[in-house]
Amino acid sequence: MANYPHFTFVFIITLFICFFHGKSSSSWLNNEDNGVIMVQGRREDRPTRCDFSVGKWVYDQSYPLYGSNCPYLSTAVTCQRNGRPDSGYEKWKWKPNGCSLPRFDALKFLGKMRRKRIMLVGDSIMRNQWESLVCLVQGVIPTGHKRVTYNGLSMAFHALDFETSIEFSWAPLLVELKKGPENKRVLHLDLIEENARYWRGVDVLVFDSAHWWTHSDQWSSWDYYMEGKSLYKTMNPMIAYQKGLTTWAKWVDLNLDPRKTRVIFRSVSPRHNRQNGWRCYNQKTPLKFFSHPHVPEQVVVLKGVLKRMSFPVYLHDVTMMSAFRRDGHPSVYRRALNQAQRQHPREFSSDCSHWCLPGVPDIWNEMLSAMI
Questions:
Q1: What does the record list as coiled-coil region(s) (predicted)?
Q2: What is the reported pTM?
Q3: What is the band of 279 on the pLDDT scale with cuts at 50, 70, 90?
């Protein structure tokens, strides 16, 4: 009963928020007064009120928005608990040029998502973002009024009083990867339903798919590509990526209703893996500028596919803003290191792909909240 006054306060505030967000269950999907229109597809000629992807990182002592003791964080991203000695990387917020990015408001987010499902679909970096979103939200929900359920590699956080679920669905390639003859792994570039069946009936779908398509032969997850009845041993990775994304785009166009479902595609999360993964080790501040700004091929391919769609898909472009943040990766602190091990960090592998939490994905989720 110790949580009862807290629960009553949350409930009253939620009713207030929901009242002012409109009574219609679909009106929120059409509400474009949130200060951002980032629509791809055939609406690209419409004006952009605020391009969140262009701006600068600003140090803000009031961050982070939650602590590293959040119970939903996986060990690989809890850099503080794993012994990382500095914490400044947690205190940077993103300031877009010409507008402001609202600070994440858990109650406002839950109010918008009341009786709705949001599902993040993709790879381990999308799970990184899912853990961030759950930690941003869970602090305002009393113990006993929240739970997490697991189904294989997929999982869902349930805010019970809001009848809201924040879900993660594992599908790093979006299209289907199956075992073929002689136990060979076959990537079917034109099949998707096995994964897509989980996406039906979801109110907000957030996708990413990029890193797995460019894994080297040593780390590749498949032995063959297949399209129709044709089998290929090799294919240009970006051609394969374009084919896979086109299969996804066709499924969205044919199966989803934009009046009921909002679809967002997050761009590729940059890696800082040069110098054998040591480019992010011992980095403490964001980069200030790029001498040679580079747009990854995956982003070019993704934008091309989105422009050909009839369904309005929102591009959540985090690539350039995150490229400044080579200080935000776990590096050697992807595992708990004792005092003696910290004296010899180069004996351990360095992760410059995923992100420490609290950290950069929290800002992605501030953008995501503004978009919905």
A1: none
A2: 0.85
A3: confident
d(CA 99, CA 319): 19
- 3 state SS for the chain: CCCHHHHHHHHHHHHHHHHHCCCCCCHHHHCCCCCCCCECHHHCCCCCCCCCCCEEEEECCCCCCCCCCCCCCCHHHCCCCCCCCCCHHHHEEEEECCCCCCCCCHHHHHHHCCCCEEEEEECHHHHHHHHHHHHHHHCCCCCCCEEEEEECCEEEEEEHHHCEEEEEEECCCCCEEEECHHHCEEEECCCCHHHHCCCCCCCEEEECCCHHHHCCCCCCCCCEEEECCEEECCCCHHHHHHHHHHHHHHHHHHHCCCCCCEEEEECCCCCCCHHHHCCCCCCCCCCCCCCCCCCCHHHHHHHHHHHCCCCCEEEECCHHHHHCCHHHCCEHHHCCCCHHHHCCHHHCCCECCCCCCCCHHHHHHHHHHHHC
State which amino acid sits at residue 217. D
pLDDT at 14: 44
Residue 223 in tokens? 């032995």
Q: How confident is the model at residue 19 (pLDDT cuts 50, 70, 90)?
A: very low
Residues with catalytic roles: 124, 351, 354
Q: What is the pLDDT of residues 288-333, one digit of tens each?
A: 887 667 788 999 999 999 999 999 999 999 999 999 999 999 999 9
